[in-house]
């Protein structure tokens, strides 16, 4: 093994700036996708809880399809395939902006929301049924009952699994580099091909992912210890 | 819609250029997934037991392995092996082997957690009773704890198999000729039907994974009857 380590190269100067830019892109794409997938996931979960059959089946088909297909192929689909279906005006508008980023956000959102919908549904299931009956009896409408009684309780229970889904999202966001979104992993690869010092760049990228995930799992443990035990029926 | 492109290349999606050239496509995806899950099972079992051990010199390395691997994206792991192997071994390893090693190391950590949780879910009395009848710790594990807990873990293993099948698509990034890579090639060659091609690939993955998921759901229902519980 005759490899000259050169940490100075990666940790200072232009390359370190690349890595910082990459971290920012990773965090940005994760945050945007997480926000959208929470919204979409809640909608799909509530769709599956309704008594209206077509909506229920639509929600079921959505979660089953996107949970059981690889994210990478979904990314390719949205990036290469979507322009064929979208009208030209939308395509022009998208290509004028950051189309890679948009395709990345769409695929991450659709993929993650299918998982989040399942978590939310199991959270709603764990709320005793008479909660809904009671709130309907008090005179709340179905939407109000969900809005004010069921969802606030359900969300408190599913915060730990939701956080670990968020963590998965951050890790999965490394896949968007295949379509050229310049995230931390893309930058590490870039440094490797410019300077042949892939080891240092990959080490830094790994440490960043690792520290994010360790901090997040620490938070989950703290939450479990201090807050979850207060919830009881 | 130009599904004729898909139709013409359908056998390429299924088994690549097989009789004339190397095996690829869906067949390669299935083989990759099956081989990796088999090896990852043993790795995961070993590390899961180590993680549960009372001896710190067994527990801490297992913890380090599990946390390290679960904290890094699979794509990064694949690239680590892809760059690391030539430097350490002095010669380049074929992409296929690199992928299998990366998938085994990655999935092994998740299976180790399943094994740990499965063993912890058994009532503590099982171990005590087994030790009480005079079995050693190893024998108690081998004959009493593992047979019961492994049966309960089967649904989780199937789920892990599903996500492994999905993860094999990442092998395409270093050039293994599996389903995703074949689709990319056809898409680059024909240029006029990317959407149709990727929809076909998505459906192919979906069929496999959905069968497995619904099978694991049925298993879960069946097996829950035989569980040992605390009373």
TrEMBL record, chain A:
GO terms for biological process: amino acid transport. It is found in: Cell inner membrane; Cell membrane. The keyword Cell membrane applies. GO terms for cellular component: ATP-binding cassette (ABC) transporter complex. The chain crosses the membrane at residues 23-47, 169-189, 201-223. Belongs to the binding-protein-dependent transport system permease family. HisMQ subfamily. This is Amino acid ABC transporter permease.
TrEMBL record, chain B:
Gene3D superfamilies: MetI-like. GO terms for molecular function: transmembrane transporter activity. The keyword Zinc does not apply. Signal peptide: none annotated. The keyword Transmembrane applies. Residues 26-208 form the ABC transmembrane type-1 domain. It is a multi-pass membrane protein. Pfam families: BPD_transp_1 (PF00528). It comes from the Bacteria. GO terms for biological process: amino acid transport. It is found in: Cell inner membrane; Cell membrane. Its main location: membrane. The chain crosses the membrane at residues 23-50, 71-93, 99-122, 197-215. GO terms for cellular component: ATP-binding cassette (ABC) transporter complex. Keywords: Amino-acid transport, Cell membrane, Membrane, Transmembrane, Transmembrane helix, Transport. Belongs to the binding-protein-dependent transport system permease family. HisMQ subfamily. The complex is composed of two ATP-binding proteins (GltL), two transmembrane proteins (GltJ and GltK) and a solute-binding protein (GltI). NCBIfam families: HEQRo_perm_3TM. Part of the ABC transporter complex GltIJKL involved in glutamate and aspartate uptake. Probably responsible for the translocation of the substrate across the membrane. This is Glutamate/aspartate import permease protein GltK. It comes from Pseudodesulfovibrio senegalensis.
């Amino acid at each position: 093994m005759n490899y000259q380590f050169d940490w100075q190269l990666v940790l200072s100067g232009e390359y370190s700036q690349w890595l910082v830019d990459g971290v920012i892109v990773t965090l940005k794409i994760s945050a945007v996708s997480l926000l959208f997938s929470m919204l979409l996931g809640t909608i799909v979960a509530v769709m599956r809880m309704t008594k209206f059959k077509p909506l229920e089946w639509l929600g079921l088909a959505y979660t089953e399809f996107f949970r059981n297909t690889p994210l990478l192929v979904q990314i390719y689909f949205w990036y290469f395939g979507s322009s064929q279906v979208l009208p030209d005006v939308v395509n022009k508008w998208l290509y004028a902006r950051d189309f890679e980023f948009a395709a990345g956000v769409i695929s991450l959102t659709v993929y993650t929301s299918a998982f989040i919908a399942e978590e939310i549904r199991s959270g709603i299931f764990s709320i005793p049924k008479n909660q809904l009956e009671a709130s309907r009896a008090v005179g709340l409408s179905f939407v109000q009952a969900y809005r004010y009684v069921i969802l606030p309780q359900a969300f408190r229970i599913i915060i730990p699994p939701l956080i670990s889904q968020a963590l998965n999202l951050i890790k999965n966001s490394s896949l968007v580099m295949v379509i050229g979104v310049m995230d931390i992993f893309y930058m590490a690869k870039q440094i490797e091909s410019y300077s042949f010092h892939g080891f240092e760049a990959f080490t830094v990228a790994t440490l960043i992912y690792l520290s994010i995930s360790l901090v997040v799992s620490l938070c989950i443990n703290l939450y479990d210890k201090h807050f979850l035990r207060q919830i009881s029926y | 819609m130009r599904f004729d492109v898909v139709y013409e290349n359908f056998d390429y999606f299924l088994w690549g250029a097989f009789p004339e050239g190397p095996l690829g496509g869906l067949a390669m995806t299935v083989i990759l997934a099956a081989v990796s899950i088999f090896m990852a099972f043993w790795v995961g079992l070993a590390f899961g037991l180590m993680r549960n051990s009372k001896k710190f010199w067994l527990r801490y390395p297992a913890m380090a392995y599990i946390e390290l691997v679960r904290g890094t994206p699979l794509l990064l792991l694949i690239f680590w092996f892809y760059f690391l192997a030539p430097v350490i071994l002095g010669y380049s390893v074929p992409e296929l082997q690199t992928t299998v090693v990366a998938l085994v190391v990655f999935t092994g950590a998740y299976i180790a957690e399943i094994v740990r949780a499965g063993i912890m879910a058994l009532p503590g009395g099982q171990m005590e009773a087994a030790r009480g009848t005079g079995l050693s710790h190893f024998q108690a594990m081998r004959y009493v704890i593992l047979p019961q807990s492994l049966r309960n873990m089967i649904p989780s293993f199937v789920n892990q198999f599903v996500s492994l099948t999905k993860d094999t698509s990442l092998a395409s990034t270093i050039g293994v000729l599996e389903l995703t890579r074949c689709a990319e090639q056809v898409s680059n060659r024909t240029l006029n039907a990317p959407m149709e091609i990727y929809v076909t690939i998505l459906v192919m993955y979906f069929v496999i994974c959905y069968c497995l998921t619904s099978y694991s759901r049925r298993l879960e229902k069946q097996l829950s009857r035989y569980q040992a519980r605390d009373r």
